[in-house]
């Protein structure tokens, strides 16, 4: 969005970009850091930081006084953001973490208690880490998200209630509805378990944490983010296969995964006999693996 804003500003010859972010959120940082990454000469107008608007109530009063229609009221004062990927809810009674959030706010998801009484199975096919099919049907990325939003929403899948650490220093509570994202994340993770070696899988988990921080903090157009992209792309070369998931009243469980690049071999992993693995080899391995601790124990016993 920020990149497109700069493109339009250049096209229109504009020297300023205005946004409606509050002075407490992360979105203001994301917009402005990204804008500056493309054109640091563009100046920002942020009414929440300039005018005398100190709260959402003040913002509603301002809109009312100027005949601007807004989708919120003081009675239903939640801040709601929605796109194809998710719907987020903040503010109001959610600001007290002692309060249970109300399922009446859900926009995309049926509450788990009211979801279907029978499970739904969905199969997702990946090619090099990218989802390309749902239940055997080749569809576009947008169609995949749209389909899984519907399927997941009907089964109560994808609600998260979290306290997050904002970049500006405070904690913030949000309710997020992400049915398609929850399903895709689970499916992709199960396929990675099958196709990545242990060291790569574990290191990618560390990288994922840092990658999430970069995106959360608005550092999308940075050398580090591009470098991590290259690492992730390499890890996905063999993340190809099919994942079947069972959806039931808010739960998502693995119901089967296959891949031509599977690193799991039943002939080796089985408790039965195998030409590639001898049970006797384990004894020597354990002695070598535990050698540092055996040496420490011996040293301690001589004190």
TrEMBL record:
UniProt-listed Pfam families: Arginosuc_syn_C, Arginosuc_synth
Protein's name in the database: argininosuccinate synthase
Domain Arginosuccinate synthase-like N-terminal: 2-69
Domain Arginosuccinate synthase C-terminal: 78-295
Annotated source species: bioreactor metagenome
Quaternary organization: Homotetramer.
Biological processes per GO annotation: argininosuccinate metabolic process; L-arginine biosynthetic process; urea cycle
Any one Gene Ontology molecular-function term assigned to this protein's record: ATP binding
Class of enzymatic activity (EC top level): ligase
Gene encoding the protein: argG_36
NCBIfam families tied to this protein: argG (TIGR00032), PRK00509.1 (NF001770)
Assigned EC number: 6.3.4.5
UniProtKB keywords: Amino-acid biosynthesis, Arginine biosynthesis, ATP-binding, Ligase, Nucleotide-binding
GO CC terms of this entry: cytoplasm
Metabolic or biological pathway: Amino-acid biosynthesis; L-arginine biosynthesis; L-arginine from L-ornithine and carbamoyl phosphate: step 2/3
InterPro entries: Arginosuc_syn_C, Arginosuc_syn_N, Arginosuc_synth, Arginosuc_synth_CS, Arginosuc_synth_type_1_subfam, AS_cat/multimer_dom_body, Rossmann-like_a/b/a_fold
Signal peptide interval: none
């Amino acid at each position: 969005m920020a990149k497109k804003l700069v493109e339009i500003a250049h096209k229109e010859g504009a020297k300023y970009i205005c946004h409606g972010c509050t002075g407490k959120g992360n979105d203001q940082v994301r917009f402005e850091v990204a804008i500056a990454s493309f054109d640091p000469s563009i100046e920002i107008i942020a009414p929440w930081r300039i005018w005398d608007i100190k709260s959402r109530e003040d913002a509603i009063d301002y809109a009312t006084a100027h005949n601007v229609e807004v989708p919120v009221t003081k009675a239903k004062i939640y801040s709601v953001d929605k796109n194809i990927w998710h719907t987020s809810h903040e503010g109001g009674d959610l600001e007290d973490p002692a309060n249970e959030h109300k399922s009446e706010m859900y926009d995309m998801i049926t509450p788990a208690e009211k979801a279907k009484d029978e499970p739904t199975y969905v199969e997702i096919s990946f090619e090099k880490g990218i989802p390309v099919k749902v239940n055997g049907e080749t569809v576009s990325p947008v169609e995949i998200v749209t389909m899984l939003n519907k399927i997941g929403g009907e089964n109560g899948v994808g609600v998260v209630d979290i306290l997050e650490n904002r970049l500006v220093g405070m904690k913030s509570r949000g309710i997020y509805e992400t049915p398609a994202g929850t399903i895709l994340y689970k499916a992709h993770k199960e396929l990675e378990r099958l196709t990545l070696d242990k060291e790569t899988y574990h290191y990618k988990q560390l990288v994922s944490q840092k990658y999430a921080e970069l995106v959360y903090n608005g550092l999308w157009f940075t050398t580090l983010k591009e470098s991590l992209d290259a690492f992730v792309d390499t890890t996905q070369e063999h993340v190809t296969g099919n994942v079947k998931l069972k959806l039931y009243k808010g739960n998502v469980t693995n119901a089967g995964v296959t891949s031509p690049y599977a690193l799991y071999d039943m002939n080796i992993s089985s408790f039965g006999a195998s030409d590639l693995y001898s049970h006797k080899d384990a004894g020597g391995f354990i002695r070598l693996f535990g050698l540092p601790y055996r040496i420490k124990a011996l040293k301690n016993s001589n004190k």
